[in-house]
Give the backbone structure.
Amino acid sequence: MKHLTRIRLINWHLFENTTITCQGTTYLIGVNGVGKSTILDAIQFALVGGQREVKFNRAAMSGSRRTLTGYVRGELGVEGRRFLRGDATAVVALEFRNPDDTYFVHGAVVDAYQDGRSPDITYFIVNNARLNDAWFFRSEGRLFDSRAFRRHMEHFPLPGGRVRLFSRLEDYRFHLLNRLGQLKETFPAKIVKGLAFSPLTNIRDFVHNYLLDEDLVDVQVLREQLETMRHFETLAADVRERIAALNRIEELDRERTTQRRLRLINGYIRRRAQADTHLADLKRLRLELDEKQVALSRAELRRDELVERLAFARQSLVDAQVALRTDAAASRARALREEIGRLEAERTDLRRREAALQQTLSREQQDADRLRRLLADDGLDIPPSLTAFLETPDAPETIRAMQQSLEALGRHYAEQHALLKKQSADLRAEAETLQREIHQLRTGDHDVSYEAAAPQAARLRRLLRAELGLPADQVIYLCTALHIPDESWQDAVEGVLGRSRFDLLVPPEHYDAAMRLYRQRRHKDNLHGVGLIDTARILEHTRSPRPGSLATEVETGHPAARALVDLLLGGYVKCDTLEDLRNRRMAVTRECFVRRNYTTRHLNPRHYRRWFIGQRAIPRQIEQREERLAAIGQELATLQSQELALQERLALTRDRVRRYLELERDLPLLARRPELEAQLAACRAELESLDTQSIERLQAEVERRQGEVEALQADADRLTET
């Protein structure tokens, strides 16, 4: 809530330089003529502004009507001296305190003239500042006039504050109402009524003239205000509960702080005890360190001795190895052993690869035999290369021929697989469309059935509604206006009408505009074949149907639809048997046999199986779509089994070409084995023929030196570990 704290009056009637301080509720008490109404009129003028809207109170003593000029110039009403001041400037300012203890000041600076001119008024609002006489006084006792006040305040320093100056009353009132708390525009009128008074002679007139509008009590508004009050009472209770909860939280926080302090103290005590323990351990470890350093010095001396002996032993080993290597017989024996090792490793690898190649050939023979059976099942010619591979799988020319045959068969099966995938994708797309249409039909969106059966008619209907601004019930399909009571004749009516079921009915007054639009957009929107019924002309040329005609099976409340049905179906006589058809020039049976000009034919079920007329149409369409969904499921299952079979054939043809390329690459390895065996036998024979006595002596010396090096190295390792 905003509180009025001070009222500043300068040259306002008899108040030449007065500040009134307000605290809470302020009472103005005094005998007549002391200025109570003058103060109220100043408050009224500051809150309302202007001269026409303000209703100044009558003077308490004389009862004369007061004016803004009279207040500024100090009208006295005595003979010989009517006004206290000549040309004068007055200041009326009100200071308010906001709920957040900030202040704002608003009011006006008024110039009044003794020559009778209208007063000049500058309104002001100063935000985030308290009332300050430096705003109004040029010097002590000298006020700024309204224009000088505007220039002065535009450059007056206001730390944290902001001043707004207004010449137009509407701008001042708009910003003041916002500043006072987003008040309604009726607030100034209520202030005028609330602050104006006159001698009280009639309570009712006083209330209606000065306090409230003369309106009946709005019970609904009172109820809403009561509900609002109850709502805020509930909010207040909730806030009190939240404050209590916050108090509990604060208590818990204090408890948490206490516990944290205890934990810190206990932690300090524990760490101090640990520090004492660590200090004792440190002293003990320093003694152990001194002992270890002495032992380390002894170990270093032992290590240096072992290093010298190990270096001498290694040099002796190197000399023995050099002697062994420089011996011709030893060098040749070593080379032969290395060659024998290489040849044996190559032979082992060759045997492994040969075994793997034989296993691969065996598997490929089995797969080739399975491919031969599948080709026979498919009724395809078996390539000669396939038969040759089954007989001699390790012939290079057979492998190359199999590559070409498998590539050709792979292309054939890949084409079939691509066609199969396309069929599956088309069926799945159709199934999704059917499911969407079933959902739309069940939820009342019947336009989907017309979009599927007659897309051109649906486009024209949307175009007519959009361009001509017609509602949905004025642009309708012919079938939506019809009803067939006897279900047994539904197929016949649907079939004979055919595409005419989707002809569009529009009001007669819009037919010409609809035809012009149809003609303009027929190519752009592909509207060919759509019927637009001329309802006015068809009603002028109505024709009664023949008795017993197919038209009698159709009911409708639409006059134009009735006339069109009589015209289209009135010539077809209903017959129960095919024999009865021969006696008629135009007739139809329930089984949809139609006779025209003595020619009988059966209607295509595709044109009448999906019903669009009457209440039975939507359930029938849903049923037919569900049947098609089931059929698509069976077709997809069949296609899936076919796809699995094709994948098996592709795995045996297209996917095996790379393996046959690897077979062609690996077959020459089989011819390498006899040559390798001969080289290995020659190396072994040469090795056995060499003189090995000198080699054995040198080898024994190398082994002795090697033993010495290893023994010394072991001693050095043990010394390092300790």
